[in-house]
Amino acid sequence: MKNFTSLLDVNNLDSLITKALDLKKNPLAHFKRGRGKTLGLIFFNPSLRTRLSSQKAAANLGMNVMVININEDGWKIELEDGSIMNFDTQEHIKDAAKVISQYCDIIGIRTFASLKNQKKDYEEIIINKFLEYASVPVISLESATLHPLQSFADVITIEEYKKTKKPKVVLSWAPHPKALPQAVANSFVQWIKNTDVELVITNPKGFDLAPSFTKDVKVIDNQDEALKDADFVYAKNWSSFDNYGAIGTGLDDWKITVEKMKLTNNAKFMHCLPIRRNVIADDAVLDSENSLIYELANNRTYAAQAVLLKLLEQ
Ligand code: CP
């Protein structure tokens, strides 16, 4: 593995899952591997879990970590090649990537979708510029369209908690007052399709994910029908892909409630967090014994650690 920006960078998912679960049992087993190495975490957008779990993962491997919230603490970044920078941008992304590569052995980048220009978002300009210009491995800490570290933790968690060989996993759209990217949902589908589960996506009309992700996946707009016999319910809001960036209004009944969970096969509930309580899912679901929200957040560390270890071993 040279970089980690999507599932496509992973040669053997089963072995990476096994490695993460081994690290969970013995987090300091490779403490000397990262000694003298530095992880740089570059945040264009906010984070709690990704930031702290990546720092903890690096610490478990003996690495140093440097973090910058680049929009607040750095110079304003120019993305266009060849631009005449006589307006408000002060540092070209090419220079930033090359300079950060002088200080770091691995670079993590977090950048969100604009939700204004679908073509530009799906071109993944920032992550691809780092891949082009950085001279060290690049990890996505969530990009405009994908969140591979989250998805890796998602599949680890399902592997840990599944009770049948091929569980039914339902990805359910849920309401949210503001437009959110499709990254977590896209990435979840990309990863989970490569594991042994029955995947069903349920979302209102007008909220289908990009066809490149949903190809060969059952997508239905009747949430109750989708939830029937589910072993795992993964709730997530995403804004419209077709009517790009539009939020759903009048769809509050898509919230996950105790009554809806009763339709399932005593399903485990999952969400990547942060979550707007009682909007996406009720407190009674989030705080129930079937909720895996904190277990999933915990697995973020071992997902990140398995990826860092793999990159350090190259
Ligand atoms: N799930 C997740 O990526 O959380 P943060 O945005 O807090 O990092």
As for the CATH topology of the largest domain, it is Rossmann fold
- List SSEs in N-to-C order: HEHEHEEHEHHEHEHEHEHEHEHH
State the distance separating the first and last CA atoms: 7 Å
Bulk shape? globular
Widest beta sheet: strand line-up: 9-8-7-10-11
Uncertain residue segments: none
The overall average pLDDT, rounded, is 98
CATH level 1 class label of the largest domain: Alpha Beta
- Give me the CATH superfamily of the largest domain: Aspartate/ornithine carbamoyltransferase
User: How many β-strands, per DSSP?
Assistant: 11
Biggest sheet descriptor:
5 strands, parallel
Helix content: 25-40%
Q: Please indicate the count of domains.
A: 2
Q: How many helices?
A: 13
Percent range for β-strand residues: 5-15%
Structural commentary:
The structure is a single chain. The chain has 314 residues and is of the alpha/beta class. The protein has two domains: 7-146 and 300-312, 3-Layer(aba) Sandwich (Rossmann fold); 151-297, Rossmann fold, CATH 3.40.50.1370. It has 13 helices and eleven strands. The chain has helices at residues 13-25, 49-60, 70-73, 93-103, 118-123, 125-133, 148-161, 183-192, 211-214, 223-227, 258-261, 283-286, 293-312; strands spanning 38-43, 64-69, 77-78, 91-92, 106-110, 138-140, 168-173, 198-202, 218-220, 232-236, 268-270. The strands form three sheets. It has a five-stranded parallel beta sheet with strand order 9-8-7-10-11. Helix 4 crosses helix 6. The chain starts with 12 loop residues before the first helix and ends with a helix. The mean pLDDT is 98. It binds phosphoric acid mono(formamide)ester (CP). The site of phosphoric acid mono(formamide)ester has 9 residues, from helix 2.
